[in-house]
Amino acid sequence: MADDNLLDGGQRSDEQHEDEQRAAEPPRGLLLIGVYSVLFLRYVIATFLSAFFTPVATAWGISGSFNGLIFAAYPAGMSLTSLFAPQIVQRLGTRTAISLGLQLTSVLTLAFGLTPDAVDAWGGETAQYKWGFLGFYWLSGLLGSVAENAAIILATQQFPDRLGTVMASIGTISGVGCMVGPVVGGVLYDLPADGSMGMRFRFPFFVCALASLALVLPLRAIMPAGGISSDGAGGRC
């Protein structure tokens, strides 16, 4: 009888601990909003420069072929990261992976926008801008996409009961981000109407870098810290 009482007490304690853990977690709907925010922002940043970069690059002597390589660099980096995304998230944890990816997105977006200034400051030539653009855009796809991969993994493990719906909505949000990005880029490029070409070029990158950084703290408050677990309950603290 005593052993039964101890067993019952242990079971109640485990159940109470699980209830407390579930109560401490943010609502799943809030997590999904966080996932959508990461994906939307990342795809806006992936596409915003398409509105103005090509004519500016042509003015700087960058050929159409090399311009195509620059635009291909971002998805090339994303593809590489996706191969190792589960291991990265397992090692870093969901919260750290997302916040780190967004911070790197901010830094590398700003670096892309400041490439002409950096090359000029080091006494380089305009023809060398293209290598900075290529490298920073590739790194943004490679390192920044840690955030979106972690967000997608979190969504698949937190919503196994609605996986088809969630994955379809992820595709929709990503598509909307790709659609909105060029509009945002064009508007931001045109805003400093009285500014120099350099200022008009930098401004969209400043704003997008700031937007990525501004998302870090709110997401850290709602994203779970854990990584991927073998039972599919990944992302739990």
From TrEMBL:
<feature type="transmembrane region" description="Helical">
    <location>
        <begin position="30"/>
        <end position="53"/>
    </location>
</feature>
<keyword id="KW-0813">Transport</keyword>
<feature type="domain" description="Major facilitator superfamily (MFS) profile">
    <location>
        <begin position="30"/>
        <end position="237"/>
    </location>
</feature>
<feature type="transmembrane region" description="Helical">
    <location>
        <begin position="65"/>
        <end position="85"/>
    </location>
</feature>
<protein>
    <recommendedName>
        <fullName>Major facilitator superfamily (MFS) profile domain-containing protein</fullName>
    </recommendedName>
</protein>
<dbReference type="Pfam" id="PF07690">
    <property type="entry name" value="MFS_1"/>
</dbReference>
<feature type="compositionally biased region" description="Basic and acidic residues">
    <location>
        <begin position="11"/>
        <end position="23"/>
    </location>
</feature>
<keyword id="KW-1133">Transmembrane helix</keyword>
<dbReference type="GO" id="GO:0022857">
    <property type="term" value="F:transmembrane transporter activity"/>
</dbReference>
<dbReference type="InterPro" id="IPR036259">
    <property type="entry name" value="MFS_trans_sf"/>
</dbReference>
<feature type="transmembrane region" description="Helical">
    <location>
        <begin position="166"/>
        <end position="189"/>
    </location>
</feature>
<feature type="transmembrane region" description="Helical">
    <location>
        <begin position="201"/>
        <end position="219"/>
    </location>
</feature>
<dbReference type="InterPro" id="IPR050930">
    <property type="entry name" value="MFS_Vesicular_Transporter"/>
</dbReference>
<keyword id="KW-0812">Transmembrane</keyword>
<dbReference type="InterPro" id="IPR011701">
    <property type="entry name" value="MFS"/>
</dbReference>
<feature type="transmembrane region" description="Helical">
    <location>
        <begin position="135"/>
        <end position="154"/>
    </location>
</feature>
<keyword id="KW-0472">Membrane</keyword>
<dbReference type="GO" id="GO:0016020">
    <property type="term" value="C:membrane"/>
</dbReference>
<dbReference type="InterPro" id="IPR020846">
    <property type="entry name" value="MFS_dom"/>
</dbReference>
<feature type="region of interest" description="Disordered">
    <location>
        <begin position="1"/>
        <end position="23"/>
    </location>
</feature>
<feature type="transmembrane region" description="Helical">
    <location>
        <begin position="97"/>
        <end position="115"/>
    </location>
</feature>
